[in-house]
């Protein structure tokens, strides 16, 4: 714990405060619940009281983790992850330095039943608000230029203060309500408190280290693995549950059983090969620690990318915290090792929204119809109805869940449009209950929705919401960011936010776009029973036409490319200006950027130039990068894309000769000087090379250009270059350097 100095004049009544803490802590400890204690007052008083508590209460946690803006998440996981007993587990959260809700969720998730969480709350609300005015605030790097932390709205901090100081969630002690200490205060002693097991654990007699629920699931999963082996139909098993339910522990016991009995070996002399895999080693550490020592020596531990690259032989792959993996990576692992167990937390306090299963379940239904799902509901790390779990859930925005997979109710699926109300507002104009409904709908509709998004939704100054209500029930939501204008500080300067305009500036050198005002849609969702009725397009049209947005020059959107989404935004009046060549880490889809025709004349000219350029560049993107052909996109989607790009009159490929010679020459010089990326002008480079006299093909670099003209990617080109006589191995940057040098020399000859 940090060593804060204490004002000797600070009045602390140890008898009064310690009695409250001791009584509450003892009761929580006996029930195997975690204690949530809020100290409201000055820093000197809070520090002195914590010190007095540690000195006077025997059994008080000896290993306290202090959580503030300087806490590193990795060290947080390590420090609390090494705490194996409730008596050692303590957490202090300093609210005055600003709250990072994701760090709080991680830290409290590692705190076992019987542990202690102390919230340090300043006495004056203004002191808590000042925490937002620092460069170390967790949202500082998420705000679009020119917004700073001092522009953040106080809604989230107010929400935190109200929740943490609510007696329903914490023991709350106020400095100004304590009595002055007695001059004859003596050292207090209390009996050593020993944490009791969870009252509803119902430990299994056959498996004394497992609950009845865990033991039953263990048997069902072992039987299913045996059945899959006997019928020679490997299929995934999916184990889900909220955090603290003992999923990793169950996996460890399952591995122990498999090694002891080994009923699934093909032959007596073949060892059963099992691997543990997760995004970070600490995510499957509990499963590893549950293994007996001999079994630890037989289980291999893999990072996902290494496992994909090396492709070892496995009889069973266990993927823990699977929702934390990028979807394409998870899909590749399952496809390669269908005899697998996928375990994950259901709601994403570490970065994955609840919607990961919206990708997983339909995909499994299609490829592995005999897959099986299992769920752990009973808390193991703490007792059921733990107040700290409920409190942190509220702070993270998880006030309720929407069952998006439920079948639509025929009585309510068809909406009466006359009963709907429409709204375009800032998030701060909504009540907290309304904001919570917005966040719940977006969480269940998008693959990655983090607790920090909830914090941003409550606080950021340049956000806008377009909403559809049916009475008090939210039916649709569109989340937009207001951006621009921007100062043009050169092509190499990158400012926070403004995704579309800065990407287009980088690829096309069109600083004119910086003078415009834009509204960028980041997410849109319609409640499940009311989808496919045109509400999404009506919501976009309402958002665009609302008087609040009369000064907006153009509306933009950026999303993972799919035919359905492209058609949706195209029908809304948006046009494609950019397609990324690298799949998004979470969704595995390439980024597609679209924009409506701008109002201002200078913006419209730049917009048309970019659109014409993209039409000419598209065939090269499609041929060389195959941006839509990765594993996530099905054959049907591929055919849909081909139909869209080749039959839409607006997207017939334009020869590069339709682009003026001056524009082409300028673009080539920009690339040679490092002002434009290769993927922005690859088609022009190939076209330019084909126009060169054959005499110039004697250049040493000519082979590179010939390979690229055939659609080779950089990896294949680099390998071919290395095999040429007398050529040194070069990376992509080295090869591009050769091309740029020759190109610049040719353009200046």
Automatic annotation (TrEMBL):
The yes or no answer to whether the keyword Secreted is present is no
Q: Does the keyword Lyase apply?
A: no
GO molecular function, a single term = 18S rRNA cytidine N-acetyltransferase activity
Classification via SUPFAM superfamilies: Acyl-CoA N-acyltransferases (Nat), P-loop containing nucleoside triphosphate hydrolases
Checking Gene3D superfamilies in the record gives: 3.40.50.11040, 3.40.630.30, P-loop containing nucleotide triphosphate hydrolases
Which superkingdom does the taxonomy of this entry point to?
Bacteria
Q: Which UniProt keywords apply?
A: Acyltransferase, ATP-binding, Nucleotide-binding, Transferase
Q: Which residues form the TmcA/NAT10 N-terminal domain?
A: 24-141
TcmA/NAT10 helicase domain mapped to chain residues: 238-392
Q: Which GO terms describe its biological process?
A: rRNA acetylation involved in maturation of SSU-rRNA; tRNA acetylation; tRNA wobble cytosine modification
The record ties this protein, via Pfam families, to: NAT10_TcmA_helicase, TmcA_N
Q: Which PANTHER family match?
A: N-ACETYLTRANSFERASE 10, RNA CYTIDINE ACETYLTRANSFERASE
What's the protein name?
Answer: tRNA(Met) cytidine acetyltransferase TmcA
Q: Which organism is it from?
A: Thiomicrospira aerophila AL3
